[in-house]
Amino acid sequence: MDILTTYNPSTGEKLADYPLMQQEELDRRLQEAGEAYRYWSALEVAQRSFAVGNLARELDRDLDDLARLMSEEMGKIRPEAEAELKKCIRLCEYYAAHAEAWLADEDRSHGEVKAMVQYAPLGAVLAIMPWNFPVWQVLRCAVPALLAGNVVLLKHAPNVTGCALQLDDLFVAAGFPEYTFQSLVIDVDQVESILARPLIAGVALTGSTRAGAAVAQLAGKHIKRSVLELGGSDPFIVLADANIDKAVETAVQSRFGNAGQSCIAAKRWIVVEEVYESFRVKAIQKIRSLRQGDPVQDDIQVGPMARPDLADQFMEQYNRSVSEGAEVLVPCIRNACHVSPGLLGDVTPEMTAFREELFGPCGVLIKAKDADDAIRLANDTIYGLGSTIFTADHALAMQLAQQIHSGNVFINTIMRSDPALPFGGVGMSGYGKELGREGILEFVNKKVVVG
């Protein structure tokens, strides 16, 4: 029997073994999911909302244990683990409060035509989720899909299997019928056979652009809906009139949170030449002050990368960028999965650090001539997930926001997702929306009834 093993990235210690589901068990689970769907989809939205409200309370009750597990499995520092779980609680509370109104029948009558639009569930949603936010990424997909009356099958990243199975327990404790939400401990080569089944109505993936392309191809082949939230190389623009201290603080917080392993991190710091030197000096000081170490220690600001292979890939990109001419302002030094926070300067569009997504703890500093040049550099990417503008001129920021090719623009504040706001990208950052009302309507049948 094939075994999946998890390890602590900070210490290298083995955590647990999990047997991969064999075909007979998988078939049984999918049959149970179909039975659960027939019951769950027939409930009133208010009843489903009540269960989601209970889930918020179960998350709060389990916060310490789940935060510890997140630190052990993927290296998230304790304050960030707790913040992620508290955000999940807010997500549940927000959706539980709004789902009934969002899913209510809409009167679309006009003239003599009496019509309405109903929002009906579709079936099962396959959620293929990453390791970097092992609870938030799952719940921001699962909660709206479940409230809409669907059931959810989770294929989580292997290195956070413990988190996935603990979520199963929390859903049951919150009063969800068994198999309404369930984690499938499976290999990636089993995904297509699941996606092909009639029960599966759609697939949501958060992950790399490469993984997104593969899943989109399978979804198209089997005529299944898909929502993809993929990579990003988010620009962080700093204009001459910006508050430089605040800009540096925000850029460092965004880039080095989660050890740099975030799709919406500020990955390209595009600073106009008038303030480039001031920003550079302050950024170096701030980065050198960051405390790195074991994520369970109270005073640590940067934990390890989640797996050795991820550190390998990141360091290869970093070293390639240096060989291409990037200036090493603060070096990235690797010790197993621990990579010290670094900074590359004078990065140009020809370099790896500009063209590719660096998924690790390194700032990338780029000089722009002026605001127009900053926008040109910001848009010189295949990605389009998030972006940030720092300037004292709010009217100018609003004009520039219209010119940036991305799904999200934040002005004078850190880029972050919000349960109330639709979230998603364009270009190679994917398509579709999660969160907000838009998120709950991704996996519903917008049924028109006339008469």
Write the layout of secondary structure elements.
Layout: E1 3-7, E2 14-19, H1 23-40, H2 45-61, H3 63-74, H4 78-102, E3 106-107, E4 115-121, E5 124-128, H5 136-147, E6 151-155, H6 161-173, E7 181-183, H7 191-195, E8 200-206, H8 209-221, E9 225-229, E10 234-238, H9 244-256, E11 266-272, H10 273-288, H11 308-323, E12 327-330, E13 334-335, E14 338-339, E15 342-345, H12 352-355, E16 362-368, H13 371-379, E17 388-390, H14 394-403, E18 410-411, E19 430-431, H15 436-440, E20 444-450
Parallel strand pairs: 5-6, 5-8, 6-7, 8-9, 10-11, 10-17, 11-16, 15-16, 17-18
Antiparallel strand pairs: 1-2, 3-4, 4-20, 9-19, 12-15, 13-14
Helix pairs in contact: 2-4, 3-4, 3-6, 4-5, 9-10
Q: What can you tell me about this protein's structure?
A:
The chain has 451 residues and is α/β, with parallel strands linked by helices. The protein folds into two domains: 3-230 and 427-450, 3-Layer(aba) Sandwich (Aldehyde Dehydrogenase, Chain A, domain 1), CATH 3.40.605; 234-411, Aldehyde Dehydrogenase, Chain A, domain 2 (3-Layer(aba) Sandwich), CATH 3.40.309. Helices cover 42% and strands 20% of the residues. It is built from 15 helices and 20 strands. It has helices at 23-40, 45-61, 63-74, 78-102, 136-147, 161-173, 191-195, 209-221, 244-256, 273-288, 308-323, 352-355, 371-379, 394-403, 436-440; strands at 3-7, 14-19, 106-107, 115-121, 124-128, 151-155, 181-183, 200-206, 225-229, 234-238, 266-272, 327-330, 334-335, 338-339, 342-345, 362-368, 388-390, 410-411, 430-431, 444-450. The strands form five sheets. A seven-stranded mixed β-sheet has the order 12-15-16-11-10-17-18, with helices on both faces. Strands 7-6-5-8-9-19 form a six-stranded mixed β-sheet, sandwiched between helices. It is globular, with a radius of gyration of 22 Å. The protein starts with a strand and ends with a strand. The mean pLDDT is 97.
